[in-house]
Amino acid sequence: FRGEPSTYTRFSLAQNMEGDNSQVEMKLSNSEMDDEVGNSMGGHREPRIMKPKRSPKNIFFLIVCTLLIFLIGFLIGYLSYRGRMPTKDQSCSNADSVPCGTAEELLSEDGSDTTLEAAQPGLEWKQLKELLKAKFLESDFECRIRACSVNREAGSEGDQNLALTVYNEFKRFGLHSFWNDEHYVKLQSLGSTPNRVTILGSETIEVPKGYLAYSASGQATGKLVYANYGREEDFKKLTSMNIGVNGSVVIVRGGKICFATKVANAQKVKAAAVLIYLDPADYDNMPEDTDVFGHVHLGTGDPYTPGFPSFNHTQFPPAQSSGLPSIPAQTITTNSARVLLSKMRGQSAPLEWKGTLSSTYNLGGDENVQVKVEVNNVVAEKMIHNVFGVIKGLIDPDHYVVIGAQRDSWGPGVAKSAVGTSLLLEMAKALSDLVVKDGYKPKRSIIFASWSAGDFGSVGATEWLEGYLSMLHLKALAYINLDAAVLGSQTFKASASPMLYTLLGNTLKEVSSPLDSSKTLYQKAGAENWEKQTIVPMTMDDTSYAFQAFSGIPSVSFKFTNDGDYPYFGTREDNLNNLITRTGNKVADIARAAANVAGQMVLRLTHDHQLSLDFDRYNGELYSSVFKINRFAKQLKKAGLTIKWLFSARGDFDRATETLKNDILNSDLNDAGICRAINERIMRVEYHFLSPYVSPKDTPFRHIFYGSGPHTLKSLLENLNLLNSNPSYLNMDDLRNQLALATWTIQGAANALSGDIWDIDNEF
């Protein structure tokens, strides 16, 4: 700073003739005396370099300037980074203004930019949901339902024609891709020899037109015993009243539990056969001569290819599901049931067991009344088609939401499958229009699936899951079931994975009630208490059950309904007129509300950066189960067992969820790679609750919370209860094994959620 004012420095580049490199010539000149450079070598003068004078004051000034520049740069970098960070109060999963992004927008011309922030804004959430509502206002749901209510029993010509209609509609809507899967499955139907129910030595009571698929064929004769709904507690009640069921023909009424569970319970107590009828107390306004159809396979999928898909090229040895019954089972009309009940004697049934079919309900057991049940169903191999369409995501196309509906039906099946198929088609049309016409750019893919053979126990859906068992849990982030979504108008009910509770609750806040547009479904469901009023257990005859308990994919099904069960499933009374009556002539309005519920869940799962799957919810489920097990700590200690390690595993899962939440808070979710890595950890939580210690072939429903079998926490608790009620029936080795495997399944889920193996730090 103190150099002479007349001094300057001149730089020039000259080519080095002896090589390719350039050399720098630096000359210092004075304005008063400009030295000339001679042409000869002798005339060349060496440059004089002026060294600046260094003083403590100068050095201090340079240090201050350097620090100031560094501080300014640091602040600019920090503030720009902070602006992209999500906060606790504003996450990408609940902000109305989160923009969509495309894969093309994520990359600059040289392909270097991989942040979601680089994407130009598409449709904001508030704008997106309003567009979806508007599209459903244009849908003619009732017309679509009528078109789908054709004769379409699984594998029939009607089923194939409707499959072709769905395929052509997917094509017309402009979906990115559409295809079908063929499966060759074994289905049961009535044989050439009719089924028959006879009072021995007397008249034939009925030659039924309805039947129960997968019943054992053959004849069975025994005394008639009334067993209410055929639940486990009903058979225990009979035992306590000294009514023997062994070798008897059990008559039970429909309702409360599925037909397959009724028959399985009767088989456990060694009944010879089962008759099922519809009592007017449970099925009001049902014509008493109505034929009833159902299935009695305690499982899902083709029971003759358990655990593996029914493709035509597979050459597996003959096998059958452990859920197939070994006793005959048959439905009878209400009229036939009245005749049988009138002939029964013995003790009077408990008051809560009495319906409205007869003035007296006796338990039977009279050796003088012998009933013969003859079942002649035949098994035939049939080709079925599952039809698919897809809207491909633009950032993570290999991650997808699956929306599905059963297509087939025994009889009109309006509520059972026609409504679901109509919703599927209208949703495909609306979501496709959002992409093609309105510019919505989903981050993840949306798969639309039309299943066949659903009436036989989710056969089509389960065969697809079995065919892609090794990969679907890595790809499918959720399943939304549209079956039986409209059964009434009074209440809203749902069955779901705990991981979807928060998403469902937030969706109900956005959808208006079809009966009162001034209130949302959330308000109608009790607002803060909505879960208690809305969530019901998921049953095995729900297609969602196969996705969740078999494949470990978070699933949800829902329905608008009235008090009590829908009475017309499996009958020819499941028609549009009865559904119109049940809904108060609001079928279209309620179908539109159902479409909005499913549609907004799909949009949330494909719009937000972070997946709307609440992995923290399983902490509550684990705590509840471990708390129940802890009540037996003293008895277990006496037997030389401890639940210390089960508590440790639960604690590790709790810490793993906290770690993941912290990782999310400290991560830039606008970075595509980071966001994908976090989402993959979230979407696999459900899968890791499938027990790895049982075979999917022998025990297909491996989920320790929602599955069935000795590996489940429910089974563990049942055995622990024997410590108090009947310890002589308890096998301690089995109990020890259950406790150990349940502990390790939970520990495995905790380890998987923690992230990379070097991030896991426990002393288990």
From TrEMBL:
Coiled coil: none annotated. CDD domains: M28_TfR (cd09848), PA_TfR (cd02128). It is a single-pass type II membrane protein. Residues 386-593 form the Peptidase M28 domain. The keyword Phosphoprotein applies. Pfam families: PA, Peptidase_M28, TFR_dimer. Its main location: membrane. Residues 649-753 form the Transferrin receptor-like dimerisation domain. Residues 221-290 form the PA domain. SUPFAM superfamilies: PA domain (SSF52025), Transferrin receptor-like dimerisation domain (SSF47672), Zn-dependent exopeptidases (SSF53187). The chain crosses the membrane at residues 59-81. It is found in: Cell membrane; Melanosome. Keywords: Cell membrane, Disulfide bond, Endocytosis, Glycoprotein, Lipoprotein, Membrane, Palmitate, Phosphoprotein, Receptor, Signal-anchor, Transmembrane, Transmembrane helix. It comes from the Eukaryota. Stearoylated. Homodimer; disulfide-linked. Cellular uptake of iron occurs via receptor-mediated endocytosis of ligand-occupied transferrin receptor into specialized endosomes. Endosomal acidification leads to iron release. The apotransferrin-receptor complex is then recycled to the cell surface with a return to neutral pH and the concomitant loss of affinity of apotransferrin for its receptor. Transferrin receptor is necessary for development of erythrocytes and the nervous system. Acts as a lipid sensor that regulates mitochondrial fusion by regulating activation of the JNK pathway. Belongs to the peptidase M28 family. M28B subfamily. This is Transferrin receptor protein 1. The lineage of its organism: Eukaryota, Metazoa, Chordata, Craniata, Vertebrata.
